[in-house]
User: What shape does this take?
Amino acid sequence: MSDTTNATPAAAPDGAARDWTPDELMTVNAARALHGSRTCFVGIGLPSAAANLARRTSQPDLVLIYESGTLGSKPTRLPLSIGDGELADTADAVVSVPEIFNYWLQAGRIDVGFLGAAQVDRYANINTTVIDRGPDRPEGRLPGAGGAPEIAASCGKVLMVLRHSRRNFVERLDFVTTVGHGSGPGDRARLGLLGQGPVAVITDLGVLRPDPETAELVLTEIHPGVTVEQVTEATGWKLRVAGSVGVTEPPTQAELAALRALKSGGEPRA
Assistant: This one.
């Protein structure tokens, strides 16, 4: 899935243009979800944008960890991949990949994992491996698992960020790459997975969180200018909706300046 920012400003209910795009609103809210976290295992793309924005704004002491072995990276721009030299150049330390996984991740030393996805189902399971393109057509190959299965298994909790459409939010995954909440309550414990699993899925339309009893994703918040109907129509299953749906706060000028500076590789300008 492309991570190119949607350049079209969001529209207010009255039709007036806003000074932020749906992607910027999504990224800002994803960054806010890291409030109170100390360490974050970061996926490339939208998760990396959110995590770096959080470190530049409300969470300056947030330690960013990438699976290539960098601890405490402070990139001046958004990295292109886990192998981007900017991550190593700005890191507090660089260790081996086995150490990142065996000592830091699988030992439960990381607060939160931040992941993207190509497909997500109602229990926040993830597909990043293949897409079924229909009869007589070859499978669509995706980047694959990377470290996502281990991140989802062992981080204290998992946040997810992706754009909201029926192509991404599906009734049934074409392939289960990463277990979120399996098929419901108790599955993570049965599989021996250590962390809480996904606690929020932030999209360009709103925020979904797992129900404490069923583990099924529930719409809890929508973004300004978005309706509940828009979200349910963009979901490939009958999405449950909270009794009281909140509305997220729009981005501040400081958040927008910091995000745009990250994308351009410059310093924030209000």
